[in-house]
Amino acid sequence: MQTGNIPAHMPEHTLAWHILSWAEQNIVQPDGENAGEPFRFTPEQIRFLAWFYAVDSRGHWIYRTASLRRSKGWGKAPSWLPCASSSS
């Protein structure tokens, strides 16, 4: 999956809502003026994770792999933490 190819709408079925909720309760902003406060996902990060965890009506993953490329400071490390934490 490439982020440039993600549909503008949200998927019908996704596990992301539970994962995002957990992440916003357990991950803190690592640096900057909001350091130590709860991490808040941007709309683009939410859409990416919604499609990353999208499943079809039978519960099968829609995407098996994904790649995210963004510039330094975009929040790649904190936004990927839920992926690593939920996969283990």
Quick summary of this structure?
The chain is mainly α and 88 residues long. It is 38% helix and 0% strand.
What attributes characterize this protein structure?
single chain; 88 residues; mainly alpha
Description:
The chain has 88 residues and is an all-alpha fold. Helices cover 38% and strands 0% of the residues. The protein is built from three helices and no strands. It has helices at residues 16-26, 43-52, 76-87. Helix 1 packs across helix 3. It is globular, with a radius of gyration of 13 Å. The model has no long low-confidence stretch (mean pLDDT 80).
Count of DSSP-assigned helices: 3
Overall radius of gyration: 13 Å
Give the biggest sheet: none
Low-pLDDT parts are none
What does the overall shape look like?
Answer: globular
Question: How many β-strand stretches?
Answer: 0
Order of helices and strands: HHH
Strand content: under 5%
What is the terminal-to-terminal distance?
A: 21 Å
Provide mean pLDDT, rounded: 80
Relative helix content: 25-40%
Structural class: mainly alpha
